[in-house]
Fold this sequence. Notes:
Rossmann fold, 2 domains, Arc Repressor Mutant, subunit A, alpha/beta
Amino acid sequence: MSTHDRSAITRILLVDDHRLFRSGLHSLLAKQPNIEIIGEAEDGVSAVRLAQELAPDIVLMDISMPKLNGIEATRQILSQNAAIRVIVLSMHADRRFVIEALKAGACGYLLKDSAIEEVLNAVGVIVSNQVYLSRRITNIVVKDYILMAGKTGPTVYTLLSAREREVLQLLAEGRNTKEIASHLNVSVKTVETHRKQVMDKLGLHTIAELTKYAIREGLTELE
């Protein structure tokens, strides 16, 4: 039983690029007397902006989204406001996503097929300053930790800086250098430098190779 005061209102920001899923979750959560949905975002960039503007208690965050994925969005949100709690609600049960989401500062990780009761339970636990992992996620993390102990290889998160990962995701989503420069508010030359650094660090030489790598590492996905 959570120690959270049930009379207190928990203000939630919903972040998911699938409108149908978002509206379904909104309807279910809005029925709860102690929850208020204060905003919705369909990509990581909007999520970061809205989190800064609205300062929600909790962000329910998808991982695979256009422009900026949920892990990078979590990192940026928490760097601006460490008091916000992020719960990842994803279809991905892959160890890499779970570990990187937690490293980015997420306090919870649930799978999208979780019952609404589990989502509500997670909200209550996390508002009480605890961490919540669904049972399946805990099992995956523990089993994988035992298997992978001493065998962790480099990942996109250890090889590239946060800005380089942003550039890689946008390149993989088909943005050209000028569009990326405008999106990130930097010069074209800066984007070209980042792109070269990404290619050098990863040992990849074409946009096609970068795109495959970004998809494999979960920075973006094929529609």
